[in-house]
Amino acid sequence: MSDRLTIALDAMGGDAGPRMVISGANIARRRYPQVDFLIFGREAEVGPLLDRKKRLQAVSTLVHTDDVVGAEDKPSIALRSGRNSSMRLAINAVRDGRAAGVVSAGNTGALMAMAKFALKTLPGVDRPAMAGFFPTLHGESLMLDLGANVVCGARNLVDFAVMGNAFARCVLGVMQPTYGLLNVGSEELKGHEALQEASAILREANLPGQFVGFIEGDDIAQGTVDVVVTDGFTGNIALKSAEGTAKLVGEYLRVTFKSSLLAGLGYLLARSSLNKLRKRLDPRRYNGAIFLGLNGVTVKSHGGTDAFGFANAIGVAVDMNEHDIIEKTTADFAALTARTPQLRAAAG
Amino acid sequence: MSDRLTIALDAMGGDAGPRMVISGANIARRRYPQVDFLIFGREAEVGPLLDRKKRLQAVSTLVHTDDVVGAEDKPSIALRSGRNSSMRLAINAVRDGRAAGVVSAGNTGALMAMAKFALKTLPGVDRPAMAGFFPTLHGESLMLDLGANVVCGARNLVDFAVMGNAFARCVLGVMQPTYGLLNVGSEELKGHEALQEASAILREANLPGQFVGFIEGDDIAQGTVDVVVTDGFTGNIALKSAEGTAKLVGEYLRVTFKSSLLAGLGYLLARSSLNKLRKRLDPRRYNGAIFLGLNGVTVKSHGGTDAFGFANAIGVAVDMNEHDIIEKTTADFAALTARTPQLRAAAG
Questions:
Q1: By the number of CB atoms within 10 A of the CB, which of A83, A306, B51, B199 ranks highest?
Q2: Is the ipTM of this complex over 0.85?
Q3: CB–CB of A271 and B273 under 8 A?
């Protein structure tokens, strides 16, 4: 019984609300039979959904709250007036040790502000970063920040590089990760000041792996580095631009295979292989961004995802726990920071 | 004879240098028999290339200069010490009326700084913007800035919106273009200050078409708007991220069609349709970004393109002239600015 894991869910987050969250939890329940759910939200909306999923209900505890953080709420407002919101109570469950992680598809900024306030950051971390994996020519890479920190100074970028480095070592198992700063050119003088400064610090720092300096937008999908470091504004737009393009190419392909009888026959023959590819590129597979730099597992699901995508975000929270990622990353981050005191001094 | 058009070429720009530029000019020569070329570069390198292309040589004048702007040169340095560079002399040819436009695959920042200095900006324009077309679900859209202005204030973004609006009306023939500001969320309070301010001004301004407010990265490929307005840092990374993703999906497809005998047969049947799609998505087709807001046609070719791509960039310069785009955009820009004095006042 001690091997059971409790995951807290914000039932009210996401464009499709409780219906999507509960269906997602039900998919996750089948995948992760060791998980119990602590679900926060409006009983009148969530209760009936659970009533129809008896097996999920059996492993779930529903905690009623009327309050909900709106998609348009400012993080500072949400932090002050959302103390009883489903999002905040779910985070509190992690803080109090009643849950091993929290998953929300709600307002990113509010989730970040509340998680930072309630869970606190790791020693030496100014701001946590939202990190996620994406497919590349060579497998998968990690990018951070994906939108939690819209404006970043050099110190934040350096922190992200160190956290991403530690995370890649722990999760990807790449002991000598390559990492780079996203910029508009690879030449040393390109980009704004914070990038220049962060690059100079990282060049001197002695992190494991290899700092390749500046990388460009097309390096993301090429998998030029294991860890792409960027501010949240750029990272969010780069990621969504890539997602939109993959969708566009998919749509063009659909039209192409319908454009002639031969093409249609070709599709039928290649269908099983093409379906594998479609699954591989399904953005729902990559749903679930991790807040790095916090004392606790916080996973942000895409607001527009469906139940399948939300189940994957729950999977991220489960993986983080089963592999003790927070502990390992924390230890690795501390060791890296200790080894490279100039990081703190220079970027302080 | 009066219908002939002279295009100035910087023979020394681009990763592959004169060989790529001259081969590109030769492709363009076949497409645009009305064009004469005024080519600037090192005679010892460019001369022999021209000697081998007699028909191109017949419509070309080679002007020797030893000086070249390096890919890593800072714009300010290039501006001061590159007065006799191939890039600068090609721009001067436009300034002096000896050429109707200039095409360079060289250092973007230097091209921007030199063109701005030599050609001057349109009345009311603080900084020119680099604009380019890209394929979407609904056809093509325009995005600006693509990397000429790494840091932008609200005034720049508003200028870009007005110039993009005028350009879309003149080139795309969309008289009521939709346009939006690229951001990390569509909610009104998202993003940094310059975006908030620009959005407030554009909301009040009475530009033709429809200001849809903030758009996100995935809206680019979806074709949500005709004109995507953004700073050069974000625009460059969004565009390259999209290009990298398209390339990745293409590579995945290649592997998929080789993954089984059936898939391979399917490919053979669909090949002609798939080749059409490949051509449609070929980034070289979209090569050639226009500097908007200048008194003169300046086209920036991707530095890493090949002869085919460079020929397309020359085609952009030709089109700009044949359709009097600068004159029309200038008139439209002036009219829009006059109609909306608050643009100048608020963003001044």
A1: B199
A2: yes
A3: no
